[in-house]
């Protein structure tokens, strides 16, 4: 007898194995009990024949309730009809802990109830699948950068100043000084690009977004590459290569999960091929007006506008060269028209909105000083950031991609709250 994980059972056909897990579901038909077991690695059906087991084993099987923890010993049988290709013929059951009235039953529950029980909801098949996709995405991101010789540089979470505007800062007390939870690791990454050339950070970021939308979380994970000597056009290529490779990877490696999520994968296919459409901000405004939106040149785009811009090709689209006035202070002005910034937003199709925001960074010390002043930012908190332009300044560019936005898109979720293990939202800090 060997201990086995459910995912590897196909390699144990004919052998006696022991599985440790939980009861996902149970159904009986007279002299047979069908137990669906899960152990985190997968699901398998275990069949108990009344005539084939000791009375004690039958009684144990009958007493099992949903989510009871148990060890099951039995023979692995090939079974073409079942999802993993195998089932277990049960010889013995050891109940570890009987579960009383599990709160989440297979019936429909309200979202608030499920979120209050997020610690249990994670066990559900859909949630399990989503976390698997997230896991694959995160690993794919790290592999993408590792194989291209980027260096991972972790940025701090407690910071003395804002990066992405002062309206969404979480403030905290730092031994009598004000500190803020990081909105982005970017500012700390730029110096690291001077040290290593190609770098990225990947961590939690925080935005006190006082809006309740399906696209905003207070705490989300962002991956941010920053590349020395890279100009704006090359940044667009990088973003496109990054996203197309990641989508292809998920389609290839998460087929089972996407099937459980009933994701129409034909909707993701277009994003695996390059190039993606690139639309100048001015043209984007014209397109929106043509579609009947009241958008004016100079306006930022909301969710509806983003959806309308990305619904044509089925691919993500990149909107470029936004007016500098509606973008962050650190963005390099467009040399052709300095009222515009060398900024890009990548918008995912199917209404998933902005997944990437990035830009070339201001190279000049004087220009950056001026921007810090114009944005009313405290100069002394940015002295170190200005130093990057003082001591061997260099052109550089980077972007940030929100993990939950991408997971939502890949999995076809209706809200970001399911794309992160423990969502932090306007009215939710529990569990
Ligand atoms: O466009 P943002 O604000 O860009 C930055 O923070 C830059 N400093 C990144 C960089 O250039 N290194 O955010 C980047 C991405 C967005 O495109 C979106 O995917 C995600 O982060 N994002 C959020 N995701 C969930 N909830 C929120 N409240 C988010 N705000 C931004
Ligand atoms: Mg943005």
What low-confidence regions span 5 or more consecutive residues with pLDDT below 50?
Answer: none
Distinct compounds present: 4-amino-1,4-dioxobutan-2-aminium adenosine-5'-monophosphate, magnesium ion
Distance linking N and C termini? 39 Å
Structure annotation, total helices: 12
CATH superfamily of the largest domain: Bira Bifunctional Protein, Domain 2
Compute the number of strand runs: 17
Label the structural class: alpha+beta
What is the CA-based Rg, rounded? 26 Å
Describe, in plain words, how this protein is organized in 3D:
There is one protein chain. With about 425 residues, the protein is an alpha+beta fold. It folds into 2 domains: about 1-95, OB fold (Dihydrolipoamide Acetyltransferase, E2P) (Beta Barrel), CATH 2.40.50.140; about 120-420, BirA Bifunctional Protein, domain 2 (2-Layer Sandwich), CATH 3.30.930. The protein is about 30% helix and about 25% strand. The protein contains 12 helices and 17 strands. The chain has helices spanning about 55-65, 110-115, 120, 125-145, 185-195, 230-255, 255-260, 280-290, 305-310, 365-375, 385-390, 405-410; strands at about 1-5, 15-30, 30-40, 45-50, 70-80, 85-95, 150, 160, 170-175, 175-180, 200-205, 220-230, 280, 315-320, 345-350, 355-360, 395-400. The model has no long low-confidence stretch (mean pLDDT about 95). The chain binds 4-amino-1,4-dioxobutan-2-aminium adenosine-5'-monophosphate and magnesium ion.
């Amino acid at each position: 007898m060997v201990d086995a994980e459910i995912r590897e059972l196909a390699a144990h056909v004919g052998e006696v194995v022991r599985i440790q897990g939980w009861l996902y579901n149970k159904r009986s038909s007279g002299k047979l009990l069908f137990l669906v077991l899960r152990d985190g690695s997968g699901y398998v059906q275990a069949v108990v024949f009344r005539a084939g087991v000791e009375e004690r084993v039958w009684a144990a099987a009958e007493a099992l309730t949903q989510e009871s923890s148990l060890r099951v010993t039995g023979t692995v049988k090939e079974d073409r009809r079942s999802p993993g290709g195998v089932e277990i013929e049960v010889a013995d059951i050891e109940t570890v802990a009987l579960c009383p009235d599990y709160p989440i039953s297979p019936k429909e529950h309200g979202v608030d109830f499920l979120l209050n029980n997020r610690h249990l909801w994670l066990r559900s098949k859909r949630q399990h699948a989503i976390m698997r996709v997230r896991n694959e995405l995160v690993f794919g991101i790290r592999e993408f950068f590792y194989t291209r010789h980027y260096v991972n540089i972790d940025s701090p979470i407690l910071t003395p100043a804002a990066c992405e505007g002062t309206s969404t800062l979480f403030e905290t007390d730092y031994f009598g000084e004000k500190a803020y939870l990081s909105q982005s690791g970017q500012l700390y990454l730029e110096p690291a690009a001077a040290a290593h050339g190609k770098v990225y950070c990947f961590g939690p970021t925080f935005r006190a977004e006082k809006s309740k939308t399906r696209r905003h979380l207070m705490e989300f994970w962002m991956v941010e590459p920053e590349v020395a000597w890279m100009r704006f056009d090359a940044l667009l290529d990088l973003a496109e290569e990054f996203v197309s490779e990641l989508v292809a990877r998920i389609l290839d490696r998460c087929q089972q999960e996407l099937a459980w999520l009933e994701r129409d994968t034909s909707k993701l296919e277009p994003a695996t091929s390059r190039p993606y459409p690139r639309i100048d901000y001015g043209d984007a405004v014209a397109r929106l007006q043509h579609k009947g939106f009241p958008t004016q040149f100079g306006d930022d785009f909301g969710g509806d506008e983003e959806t309308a811009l990305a619904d044509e090709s089925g691919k993500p689209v990149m909107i470029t060269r936004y007016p500098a006035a509606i973008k962050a202070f650190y963005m390099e002005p467009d040399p052709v028209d300095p009222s515009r910034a060398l900024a890009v937003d990548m918008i995912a199709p199917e209404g998933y909105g902005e997944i990437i925001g990035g830009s070339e960074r201001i190279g000049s010390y004087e220009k950056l000083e001026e921007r810090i002043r114009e944005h009313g930012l405290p100069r002394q908190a940015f002295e170190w950031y200005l130093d990057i332009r003082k001591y061997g300044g260099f052109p550089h560019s980077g972007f940030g991609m929100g993990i939950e936005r991408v997971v939502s898109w890949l999995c076809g979720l209706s809200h970001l709250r399911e794309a992160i293990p423990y969502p932090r939202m306007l009215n939710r800090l529990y569990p």
